[in-house]
Structures are given as structure tokens and as C-alpha cells.
Amino acid sequence: MAHVLMAVTGADAIGLADGTSHPTGFWAEELVELHRGLVAAGHDVTIATPGGVRPPVDPGSLTGESADALRAYLAGIDGLLARPRALAEVREGEYDAIVLPGGHGPMVDLAVDPDLGRLLVDAADRDAVVGVLCHGPAGLLSAVRADGSFAFVGRRLAVFTDDEEREGGLGAGAPYLVASRLAELGAVIAPAAPWSVEVVRDGTLVSGQNPQSSVATAARLVEALAAR
């Protein structure tokens, strides 16, 4: 059994390029499927947020045919969501893996959270498993060392693509494009066609492109943990 830290956004709104605000949070399908897959494989999952605040669910992720099932799963883990750990309390090396579900929320807080950055740099340096999904890779932007180097430079990853952001995300309102920002830091973006299921595994870094890739990303994370 591995001990997994799921770092989740605490942001419930994102500022848009025009100065207005848009509701956000974590994307329900992504958190649910990552949690479900890891727990089903026998792993222990701890949820943590900046400041230990309750992570808000993006209201836009609770629509459609799967909304009731997602709500039911979230209700079943409400105790975990209501009392997350604060990222500042987590020690380096305490967990076997760090997992970041998406939603636009990570662009607001996880992308600049120094404690998440500290934990991700440590994970990269000790080759621990790191899993990111959709906009979750925004959290990787925090992983910059004191000398200014990016901990995931040269690593291949999938992320919600710029085209997907323009077509079905925040569009022109996006304050920045996560894929482009990661590429600027030296990550190697490996995009697939918009809205297709795509998971990239580069050693211990596992990444999924979009919500459609949630189940597949969880499965690849389980494989990566089994190989440790």
C-alpha cells in the first residue's frame, strides 16, 4: 500500500483576462476517478489544500448524466474533504506519491503555492510518483528551486491543451495557458487531439490531458505505484 497525497485547490473563483471573476474549484470527475482508482487498488489517500481549507467543487463539473453519481461519491468522502491537511504541515518524503486533480482552481493557488512547490521539488529529486490531470499540471509551475531551475524540465507530460482551453475552457478569458506556461519553463508537452483520452507516463511522472482521461490516468498511476 502506498501513501498518496492528493493536493487539491482551495480556490473557488478565478480572475479572467477582462478583470471579471469566474467560479471554479476542483473538477469533480477528476478528483472522484483518481481517488476511486487509487483506493480500489489498496492505496491510502490523504487530501490536502493550501491553508487546510475545504476544497470547493467547480459547479460546472456537476452537470450532465454523471452528476448524481459524482455527488454521491463526493458525499461518501465528505469527511476527507471537510478536514483536509494543510500543505504547509506536510513534510518532505512523507508520502510515496503526490497527485493533482484539475479544474481551473489550481491555476489560482497551487501554481504559486510555495509548500506544494517544496513537496514537488522533493518528489522530483527522490523520483517519487507524481500524477497530474487536466489543469492539475498548473501545480507543477510551483516546483521551482531556489536557484530558479524548474524541477520538471525536460519531462514529457499531457495537460489540458491550449486548443482545448480556447475551444471549451475559459477561451480568451483565461488569465494564462497552462500548457504554454509549462513549455516556457522547459517541460515537454505531448498533446493529443482535443478531447481524446491521453495519458503520458515519463518515468514516475504520470499525466492526463483532460477530464475524459480521468479513469485512464488513475489506472496508469496505479501501474506506476505497483512498479515502485
Note the topology.
Blueprint: E1 3-7, E2 13-15, E3 21-23, H1 28-40, E4 44-49, H2 67-76, H3 78-82, E5 85-86, E6 97-100, H4 105-108, H5 114-125, E7 129-133, E8 156-157, H6 162-168, H7 178-185, E9 188-189, E10 199-202, E11 205-208, H8 214-226
Parallel strand pairs: 1-4, 1-6, 4-5, 6-7, 7-11, 8-9
Antiparallel strand pairs: 2-3, 10-11
Helix pairs in contact: 1-8
GO molecular function: glyoxalase III activity; peptidase activity
Pfam families: DJ-1_PfpI
Family: Belongs to the peptidase C56 family. HSP31-like subfamily.
Summarize the structure.
The chain is α/β, with parallel strands linked by helices.
Could you give me the name of the CATH homologous superfamily? Class I glutamine amidotransferase (GATase) domain
Determine the strand fraction and express it as a percent band: 15-25%
Average pLDDT, all residues: 97
Q: Numbering strands along the chain, what is their spatial order in the largest sheet? A: 5-4-1-6-7-11-10
Uncertain parts: none
Order of helices and strands: EEEHEHHEEHHEEHHEEEH
Distance between the termini: 11 Å
The CATH class:
Alpha Beta
Return the CATH topology.
Answer: Rossmann fold
- Domains counted in the coordinates: how many? 1
Class from helix and strand fractions: alpha/beta
How many DSSP H or I helices? Answer: 8
For the secondary structure, the number of strands is 11
Shape: globular
The biggest beta sheet reads: 7 strands, mixed
Corresponding CATH architecture: 3-Layer(aba) Sandwich
Radius of gyration: 16 Å
Organism: Microbacterium kyungheense
InterPro entries: Class_I_gatase-like, DJ-1/PfpI, Prot/Nucl_acid_deglycase
Keywords: Hydrolase, Lyase, Protease, Stress response
Family: Belongs to the peptidase C56 family. HSP31-like subfamily.
